[in-house]
Amino acid sequence: MDLIQHAPAIRARPKSRWHPSAVDHAIRQALRASYKVPSTMAVLHDGEAIGLVRGDALGVASTFAPISRRQWCGFTSYADLDAEAKNGKLTRIAWQKDTSGWNNSSIWADLWPVTGNPPAGAYAGAANTAQPFDHTTVGGLWTRGVLPSASETKHMAAWSFSVVGASSIRNLIVYDRVLTYESASISTTPTTLTNTLPAARYIAAGQDGLLICVTCQTALGAVGSSLSALTLTDQQGNTAVPLAPGWSLNWFTSAGAPTTTSPSVVVLPHDAGNTTTMTPFLPLPGNVSGVRLIEAFTSSVNNTGTACFGLYKPVATLWGRESMVNRQQLARSMFTLERIYDDACLSFLVEQEMGNLASMQGTINMVHG
Amino acid sequence: MISPAIHTESKTRASDAIKQRVILACARAARGVGRLMPVIYEGRVLAWVGWSFVERAAICVPHRPWMRTLVDRNGLLCGFNSVDDLIYNVTQNGQMKQLWWFKTHSGGATASFWSHLYTLLGYPNTGTFGGAAFTARQHDDTETGALMHGGNVSPKTKHVISSFVRSESSSPLITETFVTVLYDLVLSYDQCTIPSGVSTTSFTNTLPALRYVASGDLGLQIMGAQHTATLGGSTYTALKYTSIGGTAGQTCPTALLQPANNTAPSTGVAPSSCFGQLDAASGVDAILTAPLVTGDTGVKQLDSINTNGANVGDANDYLLGYQLAWMPIYGGFDYTYALDYVKQIPSLPRVRDGACLTFAMQFIGSGIKWHGGVNVAWA
User: Fold this and answer.
1) Closest by alpha carbon to A248, among A214, A280, A224?
2) B123 interfaces chain A, CB cutoff of 8 Å
């Protein structure tokens, strides 16, 4: 169980802080607020979860359960982290991708459809319809799945990777593939997306939301076009928020279809010369850290081919040089210890600088506790 | 004077009984100490204790969030008590955020000039210097162009714990050492057009700077950004400011010159070049921030600017910011450089509530993309 998934939380903000009466007051407020609300919600007091509250549909009774141990767990110290690793809670995850069919430059791409370990992921969703992903989806990197203890969390402790081939890939982004809208057309007719299924991670109250990454699903035609409009629901729940970047978000023309040895290139936004991915994630409006869902989008000119609108959460960056093993440990040097959610569906974004690429492989060390 | 703090540790964690025991122990330790000291337990200020020589008794004052400023200004940033404490807050409390950024431009920038990435394409989106001319405009983390860092965390404090930056270019000719500076853009005076004739133009300061200008702070630094194409070279500007100490009319001791024949900044094409203390011979802008009068650590606001009638019509943006971190890139393009601010170069620069984070960079080349990350954590 993870508190983050029990949104919305009830936030209590009395003037006094951790005095027992202030906590009691916060609990009373939460119980009142849960009247006729038949779902479990976290009670946050002074920024910390102090318990769970739940009402019933009839409004007969509300219950409060204190949290004896923080639900976002992890490690209290180096010693604790070491002890957990020695207790068998260290998992080394090896991954490999065959990118022998790819030769590009200055292009970001998604390794999701590429074969290897994890195996190639599919584009099996209905057109223009939200499709959530989790740890059971084929194509996602195995990360030990749901932990047996609900009171533990997983964190990256180290990573390594190497690239084989006459390439200059020196940067990988590990991301959590949370939601996609597939088979999206480039059309002047507005496309309204179906959002029956919500994103399952990173969109709860207090979280940053997700970033939009648009990749090629089937080969795009040679017609120049741009994303003329896109509306979204932001991380705070504001609806119909326009993207309105103030500059032209050009589609990449003539993008080749992804194969099991050639990743899916990021097709928005590209420069006017159609040579460079400007950024792997679409720029968001001010005061928007992420999105919950995409509502609709329109393009300036029709073009053939389809794209996949993904809602991703970048988890970590792996960096280094080709033809050598690059490694970094995150508990004693870079101090990031990125959390990996139990049901995360991890994959990779990569920027191909130039040259041919044979394969890439690496490991992710994960400790939970 | 309120330092030093009394740091306490306990095997068990915070319960009210333990907190009271901690405060009591600190009150005993403060016997004969005629000033208040913060009692810090589990990374938090619980209370303030001292000794009253009049009452001949210990004084204990409950902590309130506003008192945090007292702590900050005396150098006790109360970030993390230890590396263990950092691990605890990152993994147990989830008090860490990764701030991703991507910036790109397709045109050239003047060689070796400092440039601001605020107006460039990418993520975060392009910011604009579109405020009223010669008028102070406040910046914060809610505006387009600012790297969002997770909102306010007071009374806790947020710190940069690590970062990385990567430059990429299709051109293999970039050999200049690159430097990326992460700074908090606090105030700007936008699109200030140089008037005709020898004249003095006053800045309007209805809105004050919101960060780094309180008593005890170091103040802000002055940076210039070219707003339009400039002829450059001969414009002499005497820039006057109010120092952090409150002295108005301080004059930057060195003439500030426009970059010569510099093209206009253009979204996604060319960044806005800085201007400042140019090297007269090479025209290279060697200094990011304007020099201040000896003894001044920073400024509160700009007062006025004198121009000599040259380059009429050129426009500049004047920026007041606070540099948080330097991220060097050694040897050229297509490499990633990572910095750890906890153990590698302990500094843990603080990101204040409302900070408008953006970047300045010194580089040579065209068609460059940058990709980086800033990891922050708080406690």
Assistant:
1) A224
2) yes
